[in-house]
């Protein structure tokens, strides 16, 4: 058995989601991929995948072995690249996950420049506002607006998410404007359901933290939906500057509580920890930091 070939087949099955997709990706058949994975399981004496007629899932041992395989194969690929003096030419498929609005507004406008710099990299972009597991979903880089919670991952800070409280002029004409954060309790607040503290908004007056319990008749786990609902005049919303800047400039949304500092949530690029970070990952994260530092949408 060619163990390296079998390990690559196993990794691609996990990353692509099926034996047939892995076969297409590796220019071979589903049967060949299945045989390679079965031979690998037989060789190490552990079941890596539970199979059904329509699906498969990693076993606990399989999840741990997958992470090991990804790290080992990444180090091997980079060692080979160094030996070929090809380290300056990153290549391969880069799987990225990011929030929907971030992908639409900040990533899409700059991705063509990334390809101009690195023509041998192919990008597979998964946009979702839900938490995606890097290991089970075969993700190379995740863009997340949260603190790093897993010590097996590395976080590279991209920017602080400057959050603003806004509503449409029609809403304020009907219900008035809040003057202090505590006034929000008398307003219809549109909540982002993707946060653990969905009904709590935080502000800072100098060094003093103000925690406000808010309530409203609508919440969503999608920022774009909250933006559209706020534009319709339903209520107040807490959104980052880069999502709302054009609507502030056009007058379709009006900021309130500008004298109070909102909670800044760090945006990070997160990727699995390994001895050698794949060159394609390093190039993408460095590129993203560079372009976001120049992005006018991140500031008022």
TrEMBL record:
Domain HTH lysR-type span(s) in chain numbering: 1-59
SUPFAM superfamilies in UniProt: Periplasmic binding protein-like II, Winged helix' DNA-binding domain
Signal sequence region: none
A GO MF term: DNA binding
Keywords, ordered alphabetically: DNA-binding, Transcription, Transcription regulation
PROSITE patterns for the chain: HTH_LYSR
Source taxon at top rank: Bacteria
Matches recorded under PANTHER family: HTH-TYPE TRANSCRIPTIONAL REGULATOR, TRANSCRIPTIONAL REGULATOR
Family: Belongs to the LysR transcriptional regulatory family.
The protein's name: LysR family transcriptional regulator
Source organism: Photobacterium aphoticum
């Amino acid at each position: 058995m060619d163990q390296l070939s079998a390990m690559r087949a196993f990794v691609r099955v996990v990353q692509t989601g099926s034996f047939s997709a892995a076969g297409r990706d590796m220019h071979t058949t589903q049967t060949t991929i299945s045989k390679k994975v079965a031979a690998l399981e037989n060789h190490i004496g552990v079941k890596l995948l539970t199979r059904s007629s329509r699906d498969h899932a990693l076993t606990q041992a399989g999840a741990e072995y997958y992470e090991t395989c990804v790290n080992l194969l990444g180090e091997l690929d980079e060692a080979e690249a160094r030996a070929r003096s090809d380290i300056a030419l990153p290549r391969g498929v880069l799987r990225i996950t990011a929030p929907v609005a971030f992908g639409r507004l900040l990533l899409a406008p700059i991705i063509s420049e990334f390809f101009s710099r690195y023509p041998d990299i192919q990008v597979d972009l998964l946009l979702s506002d839900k938490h995606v597991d890097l290991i089970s979903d075969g993700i190379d880089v995740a863009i997340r607006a949260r603190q790093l919670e897993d010590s097996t991952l590395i976080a590279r800070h991209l920017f602080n998410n400057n959050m603003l409280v806004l509503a449409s002029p029609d809403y304020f004409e009907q219900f008035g404007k809040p003057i202090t954060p505590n006034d929000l309790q008398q307003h219809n607040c549109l909540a982002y359901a993707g946060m653990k503290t969905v009904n709590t908004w935080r502000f800072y007056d100098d060094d003093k933290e103000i925690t406000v319990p808010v309530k409203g008749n609508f919440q969503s786990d999608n920022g774009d939906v909250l933006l559209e609902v706020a534009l319709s005049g339903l209520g107040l919303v807490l959104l980052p500057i880069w999502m709302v800047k054009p609507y502030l400039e056009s007058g379709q949304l009006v900021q309130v509580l500008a004298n109070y500092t909102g909670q800044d949530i760090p945006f990070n690029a997160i990727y699995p920890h390994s001895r050698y970070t794949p060159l394609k990952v390093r190039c993408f994260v460095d590129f993203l930091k560079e372009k976001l530092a120049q992005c006018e949408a991140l500031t008022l």
